[in-house]
């Protein structure tokens, strides 16, 4: 079967600067435009030749690849021709990323919210966030550069306190010898959990006194002056890999996007950019007939993109905001680096999907926490940003923007367990005041000690088991089994 072997199609890719419009060949490593410092998109100059294959044939090819055991085509590169068709099979790194499950909400949650929702669990990626989609693409590209240039070493660098460094360190540790990973973190500003992933992957973890922005400046200085690969979200190869989210959603719903709404939390705005770009490519190739509606979601504590789109189209002016603490910590960004990309794709998206096919919803911290707790009490595994997606859908319903006949697909961008500290604060009612979260005390959940440890000392082993079991019986009000 032709589709099971690695595709023979190759494109011609160029970096395209959204600031000054200059183009650069993709066989060189660029992070931002050397001319103006603007952010890049990657453009396939031979994209139109893909149109010689009709949409239904592409659908059949991608559906067949869903069964392949060729690992190069098993993850995000199932959609090879649409993403980075300059890579060779031997370059592709696959660690099980992509193809994350879409889980329809239970009837109970549907009744509570009055909404038809489904979570796409991007926390079920290898490092437990969607960042793996982008890293799989960026590291595959790096391997192609190493091969083509015969480099004996390349240093990958990122400034991060969370999911980006976890993903970068994981892929670097697999990709091996020539690739060394360095993560630069603000000293004392990261939790043990945030540190554990890059440390466990064997990355060099460097601490800088200061905040995230200080680390970012150091990293950009390195990128300007040394041969290092910068993996923060300005990296255009990451955006390409993240388009796979859109392809997977479309494929899961049999390429029918009518009546579907996608809710995505916005931080640096790379993810929402990639999702819009992905759906536009599918539409351009006739693989889908309609684009879904896309809703970005932002907390009132970090909402520059919401503010921009809340203004009338003639009055819009982008202004960074000063952020205040947010439970959606991975999206707590006042000056998103990918904002020019959002503007670029939002315009194209509306041209295809009509006015209001792209919107940004603002939610409160309270709504985010309540929604996360609600989702997880109904069988989901949403992180706080995943809670933000559900909060966004509920808010959109209040505003009359969606109804129960539509399906709201909610992005849980990371696994619940990465952000579990916020659940603890909710249950223990210990949020610092700046968060502006008052927990619903009826939802508090805590372990209960059944029996005193000193009784264990006093009783024989058999007595202890019986005594403990009796306390459990009393607590649960169990009835004896009739014989
Ligand atoms: C990075 C991240 C975000 C924000 O995504 P952007 O692409 O920066 O908008 C949201 N949630 C999680 C869990 C993340 O790691
Ligand atoms: Zn430029």
UniProtKB/TrEMBL annotation:
Enzyme class: lyase
Domain Tryptophan synthase beta chain-like PALP: 95-405
Signal sequence range: none
Keywords recorded for this protein, A-Z: Lyase, Pyridoxal phosphate
An individual GO BP term: L-serine catabolic process
Positions of modified residues (N6-(pyridoxal phosphate)lysine): 131
InterPro entries: Ser/Thr_Dehydratase, Thr_synthase-like, TrpB-like_PALP, TrpB-like_PALP_sf
GO molecular function, one term: threonine synthase activity
Cofactor(s) demanded: pyridoxal 5'-phosphate
Highest taxon, organism lineage: Bacteria
The enzyme's E.C. designation: 4.2.3.1
Protein family membership: Belongs to the threonine synthase family.
The protein, known as: Threonine synthase
